[in-house]
């Protein structure tokens, strides 16, 4: 049976967003903010009005209370593990003209390229040789042959590539909206998360920044996750491109989107990405975003999201610089990319800027990122356990809510970190990593510690890809 929400953002209530914002914009209600922070501590998530109240917290003291609450929730649910991944761009050909993106159709300053299956396998092997196990496959919206056959072949090419006995264990994708039938095909090719950023939920802004191409249709894009879920893809990743419109409006709209999916399918989104617009070759808008978001507001946003949807992963890409990335880790981010190239063929050719989608803020190697995480008390994790064991969508949330994810995530983080240390790390990093693992084990409760020690023993005896 067809449902309006399969093709239209029937849940996007602009009037309600404006009304909620009007009730709190520019006002800091200290009593109300503290009430919401106390509620957030129950780990049950927040309402639209609660989120709006938190956005009013501006004074240094209250902002610090907001950050402290976010740190507590982050630690409570996720512990200190950070999941690592790398994007893999397969094509920069696009039929849209998004004003902020270097890949837009009318931009002649970018050399167009669609990778062959051999080239995709080669890029994958380079990522594997660095230690990556998770890839986010990305493409412009125009595939050779018209249908999504190319995309499906590309997913297969990534999964079958081998380097030193290792392979990519989870392929997430960031692609344009699809029909239910095409989503079914994507699901049959074993994708992990289907990611799609709405860019902006503000209809007038959406129209201006997407002047032509299929992406002009906000409703088709905003209803993508309904179709993905109808097709059985229950891990979906949302995102907003911050800088296009008022971040507070966008955040409330995102909350509405999540509430709609929860109501219709019993599960919201698996992850949220928070890209801010970065300079992009051939894009004036990207150099001067109309609603540029300050670092202070960006940190507030991460903290608010951590409290509002405590069980949803937060992703931070290499768009941001090292300092901001490190600050957001403690406030709520649970997944980061490392050593990214955002141009097709960028790993092999070691090109960072040429024909790239946007400018990168963090150019460190995976080894440097891993070292830095350890120095800041985090466990770098290459875990793909939940997805492999079918713990996705509602099953994942049901497990996450009573706090069990910490019991699974921490042992899996340690075992995959150990794999990384033994297979890819330099001698100094191996020593430092083993010391960090010992310290983490010493501080663990007995049950997860015993599970961790058993997994670590397997890895040390030569087994790979072990998880619980
Ligand atoms: N082409 C598909 C689409 O637009 O949905 C797939 C992904 S696109 C290559 C990946 C994302 O990059 C976009 O959704 C957008 O949010 C982000 N992006 C585009 N231009 C950007 C810029 N200048 N700075 C930061 N992020 C940008
Ligand atoms: Fe194409 Fe996506 Fe870039 Fe828009 S954001 S121009 S759809 S690649």
CATH superfamily of the largest domain: Aldolase class I
**Structural class category:** alpha/beta
Q: How is the main sheet built?
A: 8 strands, parallel, barrel
Distance between the termini: 39 Å
Pattern of helices and strands: HHHHEHEHEHEHHHEHEHHEHEHEHHHHH
Residue share in β-strands:
5-15%
How many domains would you count in the coordinates?
2
CATH class of the largest domain: Alpha Beta
Number of strands: 9
Helix content: 40-55%
Shape, per Cα inertia axes: globular
Question: What can you see in these coordinates?
Answer:
This protein is α/β, with parallel strands linked by helices. The chain folds into 2 domains: 75-363, Aldolase class I (TIM Barrel), CATH 3.20.20.70; 397-460, no CATH class. It contains 20 helices and 9 strands. The protein has helices at residues 14-24, 30-40, 48-55, 60-78, 117-130, 149-160, 180-188, 203-209, 218-222, 224-230, 247-265, 284-287, 295-308, 322-331, 366-375, 385-388, 393-400, 404-424, 427-442, 446-460, and strands at residues 81-91, 134-139, 170-174, 191-195, 236-239, 271-273, 313-316, 335-337, 379-381. The protein has an 8-stranded parallel β-barrel with strand order 1-2-3-4-5-6-7-8, surrounded by 7 helices. Helix 6 (149-160) links the parallel strand 2 (134-139) and strand 3 (170-174). S-adenosylmethionine is lined by residues 100-101, 138, 140-141, 174-176, 196-197, 199, 241, 275, 277-278, 280, 286, 319, 357-358.
